[in-house]
Amino acid sequence: MRVLVVEDEPKMAGLLRRGLAEEGYVVDVAGQGVDGLDAAVSQVYDVVILDVMLPGLSGFEVCRRLRRGRVWVPVLMLTARDGLRDRITGLDGGADDYLTKPFHVEELFARLRALTRRGPVPRPNELAVGDLRADPAGRRCWRGETEIVLTAKEYALLETFLRNPGAVLTRDVLLEHCWDFAYESRSNVVDVHVRALREKIDRGFGMQSLETVRGVGYRLRADGGMPAGAEPR
Questions:
Q1: Which residues belong to any copy of the Response regulatory domain (predicted)?
Q2: Residue 184, exposed/middle/buried by CB under 10 A (0-12, 13-18, 19+)?
Q3: Which 3 state secondary structure label does DSSP give 112?
């Protein structure tokens, strides 16, 4: 098994190298984010152990770039942080597992065994309908080559539409997928956010793709939309 350790603390990197080597792993070590990214892209590894706090590129950004580049090697993130938000950030960025420092080396080995048994799992790099695209890992979206800045709720709505192209989604369905239980279905919160989303993904580009189905809900055209004012075919 070949492992890449991306860790900037020399003492920790040395401990990991020695411990993994004693377990029979072949170990490469990178001390900076950009070096770890280059190694993971250019070499084939069974697993990457990636520290979060790295000089240059953070571990979060290294992982996001790997996934955007369709590199699906299993990633175990290490960090001295133990906040929930950091764990969510790492996992949403494409990490497969998360281990907080300090940790017992036996737990590290057990997690590595689990990850290597699983192996790389191909995952979609993006959702796309026509020239409208979204990156689920990075929570970013584009119309053509132009990136669109969305709020968290606008992005949640867009991702739901992109996963269901051509389907009419009721307000209740959108509430269930994009809001918590504090909102009531009679609220107009869905309509307000859909209008804001439409302004950004359609009207700003002279397109019409997000349609209102009167009395029912909304639909993202399966063909990605057409120029505003054009007659439907």
A1: 2-116
A2: exposed
A3: helix
